[in-house]
Amino acid sequence: MIDLQQTGNGLEGYGLLAAQLEALLADERDFVANAAQFSAFLYTQLEDLNWAGFYLNKHEQLVLGPFQGQVACVRIPFGKGVCGAAASSLQTQRVEDVHAFPGHIACDSASNSELVVPLVKEGRLIGVLDLDSPKLSRFTEVDQRGIENLAAIFLRLTEC
Ligand code: SME
Questions:
Q1: Domain GAF: where (predicted)?
Q2: Of 25, 105, 107, 113, which shows the fewest CB atoms inside 10 Å?
Q3: What are the chain's domains?
C-alpha cells in the first residue's frame, strides 16, 4: 500500500503524484478498476475539487463513467458543453469561468472552473477526464500539464 499525502499543486507536487499513480496502478490493467482508482486518487489528492471522473465514448456520445462527487448528467453529445468540446476537438479544455463558456452543462451549481482532458489511446478516443472546481480559475497551465501527464500514465497502464 502506498502512502498518499497531500502534495500541493506545483510541478514538484505533480512529479510526486505521477510516481504515486504509477505505484497505484502498477499491478492492475482492468479499465473500470483503474478508472475508479484514478478518479478517487485525483479527488482526494488535488485541492478544491468538487467532481473528478470519466465520460466514456460510446457510439459517438459521452456516457458517464467512474467518478467521485455529486451525481452528474449521464449522456453528453459530442460538441456539447466543456466535455463535448474536448471530445470533438481532441484538445484539453481549461475553462477559468464555466458560466462564460457557451453551452456549459451545469451538473453541480457549485462548479465554477473546469479542466477536461481528452483520452486518446492508439488513435482512438476512449473518453474524457473531467475535473470541476468551486474556485474560479482553479486550473493553471501547470495543473493542465501535470494532469495531462497523469492521464497519459493512466492510459499506458490500463487496457482500453
Ligand atoms: N460541466 C460539464 C458536464 C459534466 S459535469 O461537470 C460532471 C460540461 O459542460 O461538459
A1: 46-152
A2: 105
A3: 4-157 (3.30.450.40)
